[in-house]
Design goal:
The chain has 113 residues and is mainly alpha-helical. The protein contains five helices and two strands. Helix 1 packs across helix 5 and helix 2 packs parallel to helix 5.
């Protein structure tokens, strides 16, 4: 058995994060909300580790770095918007997972189907 979820991550990224550059954050939150493979605290720490440094190196591409710098004058603003996007998608997908009774049950235990 498998559960399939359709999710417009770009729409949520634009709504909450203010940019399509947060689409990946929406997907991270949704995947984590469904699977519960890591905690929200761990995601928050990873985001701080990734973007809290002196330089933002998004995928190693200078073009994306420049787009981020133009959109978010301060990295704190970028961190806040990305975390808000993750939290919103996490909350939404957690509800979907509970209602759909996915293959994962309990604290990460996999049930036989």
């Amino acid at each position: 058995n498998a559960s399939v979820y359709a999710f417009d991550a770009t729409h949520l990224a634009l709504e909450v994060g203010g940019t399509e550059l947060s689409t990946n954050m929406a997907m991270i939150g949704a995947c984590t909300g469904i699977t519960r493979v890591v905690s929200m605290d761990a995601l928050d720490q990873a985001l701080q580790d990734r973007f809290g440094k002196r330089y933002v190196a998004s995928g190693g591409t200078a073009t994306l770095d420049e787009a981020i710098k133009k959109k978010y004058a301060k990295k704190e603003m970028l961190l806040k918007k990305n975390m808000e996007t993750i939290r919103k998608s996490y909350e939404m997908s957690s509800k979907w997972a509970e209602e759909a009774q996915p293959a994962l049950a309990g604290a990460g235990a996999i049930t036989a189907a």
